[in-house]
Amino acid sequence: MAKSKAVQIRKHGGPEEMELVDVEVGEPGPGEIRIRHKAIGLNFIDVYQRSGLYQLPMPLNLGMEASGIVEAVGSGVTHLKAGDRAAYASQPPGAYCEVRVMPAKCVVKLPDAISFETGAAMMLKGLTAQYLLKRTLPQGGLQAGDFVLFHAAAGGVGLIAVQWAKALGLQLIGTAGSEEKCALAKSLGAAHMINYGKEDFLARVKEITGGKGVKVVYDSVGKDTWDKSLDCLQPFGLMASFGNASGPVAPFAPGILGNKGSLYVTRQTLFTHIATRESTQEMADDLFAAVTSGKVEIRIDQRFPLAQVQEAHRTLEARKTTGCTILTL
Ligand code: NDP
């Protein structure tokens, strides 16, 4: 048995609903581990789960990403042992805490070359960039030189995708909400950046691509960017919707996809990709190689103590962050 502080909500709502509470943590059951965290990742999905955009049963312990040391393993767990350095992107939530028991299948060993803070910052965001760029492909795949459009390119997932896309030879056109964010993403490898707070991103995409449009749009902004994003695509292009930072996309009639050039639309979630231990390990190995080779730098631009989690959420929702944010213990 262990004691832990954990961030909990009793009902959906604003950041003020989050409370630091004391919880008892038991022994891991079959297929589970107990992990003592060293650092915790902050993600926009935590905001959706807190606000109620994604409805979950109450009370709810928040948090989807962390790193730490394995303290105990339950029966049937063979890929981890007590004392291992480890990291994860988890389903179910509950990562905003010091110690927890959780399913082992989403946890992987963290290579010695990667720090706990980097491990905590990069699992959910890095595995998302991995599946978007390598497993969510347009017809015929992506080739070096292809144009793609990536919204919110200076954010957590965004800056990882910018660097990885460059390593793959893609011409990534990014959007971001300020000149500073655009300059940051450009310095890390975006071929072009558009300040979509000031400029019409559709007109700029047409200009940059000589009127052709892009093969894929990666859209996590949702409501505010959806319509124009469809118009940025080449015929047979792929709209990869993966988030709703500005609100959910309104229902639409599939006929518009035909009118706009026989487009494809997909709405994916990381948790389908990491549903098995094998796929989680394969994707994590690819991410670890990208990071340890230096192709992808995991930028931690904000740190908040766990007790200041309300402030961390306010900062993320106010679009004041760049790159990754972690909660420290
Ligand atoms: P980010 O660090 O990217 O933060 C979100 C960014 O979205 C903001 O910084 C802001 O950038 C932009 N944004 C645009 N409109 C708004 C708005 N109205 N309110 C707030 N932000 C806005 O977050 P993450 O890296 O954690 O996640 C990025 C996105 O990817 C999220 O939407 C998240 O839900 C999604 N996601 C989806 C996954 C999946 O598998 N489906 C997995 C992981 C993440 P700017 O100011 O530059 O516009």
UniProtKB/TrEMBL annotation:
All residue ranges annotated as the Enoyl reductase (ER) domain in the record: 13-327
GO-annotated molecular function: mRNA 3'-UTR AU-rich region binding; NADPH binding; quinone reductase (NADPH) activity; zinc ion binding
InterPro entries per the UniProt record, alphabetical: ADH-like_C, ADH-like_N, ER, GroES-like_sf, NAD(P)-bd_dom_sf, QOR-like, Quin_OxRdtase/zeta-crystal_CS
Pfam families registered for this protein in UniProt: ADH_N (PF08240), ADH_zinc_N (PF00107)
UniProt xrefs under CDD domains: QOR2
GO cellular component annotations of the record: cytosol
Classification via PANTHER family: QUINONE OXIDOREDUCTASE PIG3-RELATED, QUINONE OXIDOREDUCTASE-RELATED
Protein name (record): Quinone oxidoreductase
Organism per entry: Ramlibacter agri
